[in-house]
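Revision sheet: structure tokens.
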Amino acid sequence: MKKQVKVGNTVIGDGNVTIQSMTNTKTSDIDGTVAQIKALEDAGCQLVRCSVPDEESATALKQIIKNVNVPIIADIHFSHKLALMSADAGVSKIRINPGNIGGVDKAKYLADYLKERGVALRIGVNGGSLDNAHKSKPLAQAMRDSALEYVSVLEKCNFYDIVISAKSSNVKVMLDTYRLLDKACDYPLHLGVTEAGLYHTGLVKSAIGIGALLCEDIGDTIRVSLSDDPIKEVEAAKDILKACDKYPYPYCEIISCPTCARTNIAVKSLAEQVEDMCKDIKRNLKIAVMGCVVNGIGESQGSNLGVAGGKDKSAIFVDGEYVESVANEDILQILKKYILEYKEK
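Predicted:
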């Protein structure tokens, strides 16, 4: 178990994996930023980070925080002063990059300042902006050492409310770095593939990088970085957690076959309709939509509800037991009936 770090009303490192995203509005645009944060919260985001590139943005944080419920993190580069202003504005955590925030003296002053105000700190190392002292090393080792060097400075100041990230746009480097960090310290780790790209590519990279580590029980909070709407980052994060069996809330899972020449029913459209039908169900429920009997019967038997397609009629299963055969054109209606019955159990 990692150390627990409190960030507002959320705890990182308590065994659950928290979901983060980042606003892409101008932070100085208070109304626009508040609206985006509320939308992220509604989508299931638990921590929201705002970039603070100038004093106007740091000043705006105070009003933003008053109008939202989710803890706010200030993303700081280069300016030690902006970190202090953000802490005064009431943020729950500061993210700094050791590669550009300044020397040891500033780190000590920042640690004392944040400790007095109960503000956590994320040491956010980035493969593209390492400090010169570590650039001659292999990248994964360099990122680990950069993060831990800064940790040691903070620990000497008796500051321990620390979260660590060490992101790279290279998935292999990212994996190697986090595995090294996990062995080297017990601070909670913030996972992510940085600059992952557009939606499709970014989702693939993030699923591989974040997902592999989560399956090794490495990682305490995640952000899927996409050049897209931040809401999609939250949706992707939830899907990754579900795939890794790390999602803490009940949900309905639809499994379906990839289809082939043996397929007897319209699997894709049927699965889409079932998924839409179940999107608001808040209980653990697994439904299989399978196109034929080859694997369909076995997969349906392993689900709460399932259909195995046949030429004219398809078999319906409930809790692994065959219950009836129905005409293919009636599958959706029959499944709906069983879903509603199951929902009420």
